[in-house]
Amino acid sequence: MLQIDFRGKVALVTGGGRGIGAAISSKLAQAGAVVWINYAHSGERAEQLCREIGAAGGVAVPIQADISQPEQVRGMVETVIAESGRIDFLINNAGITSVKSLLELTTEEWNRVMNVNLDGPFLTCKEVLPHMAASGEGVVVNISSTGALTGGGGGAHYAASKSALDSMTRALAREYAAKGIRVNGLAPTMIESDFLAERYPDEQQRSKLAASIPLGRLGTPEDVACMTAVLCSPFAGYLSGETIVMDGGRTFA
Fold first, then answer.
1. What is the pLDDT of residue 125?
2. Enzyme catalytic residues
3. Comparing C-alpha atoms, which of 27, 248, 6, 250 is closest to residue 150?
4. pTM, full prediction
């Protein structure tokens, strides 16, 4: 039987306390990794998830930091290294959006989305990758979106942030391959989470969205979590610089 074993590994998941991030945190812990669950504001949710993971036999630690702030990111990574000694997996999951047309979009809103969706992964990679390089191994998974391909996801600000993230994924994969580090991305769409529910609160509307997907259903956070675990594992040992589209066949149907 093929199994993923992350015992002895340490993961840092940004935005790891809710939605897709929570599923990823749980999956990596289930496989044996010590998981540091980053949050900016949802401290109670992150702490509750850590308790749930602990009750299931895993190990998870909540850690607060606004990933758009360099000093906070630096402090977060220093804490993880000081207490766990290493970071094997960095999952850049935290992201935000809003539904705005170009003429409605303010410079402040553009910057806010870019600060979290693009600057955040840049800052975490800048702090984490030197530690991975020193150990000679590591995996980065950037959670992107099909909005990078379709222009969807809320507006030009969101689509641009995710497209730039995909480009950064390729650049870092090239730069750090010789140091034993793999960098990949996942681009999900229509995942049944609080993120989607906030944008499409009407259940009938979500049912119509599910019907538009060739596989006949919305994706789940578990779908994304399972693929993230695969990308972190030796099963994806020859994969780097790719952003995998996870959309049930919708984008190119």
1. 98
2. 158
3. 250
4. 0.95
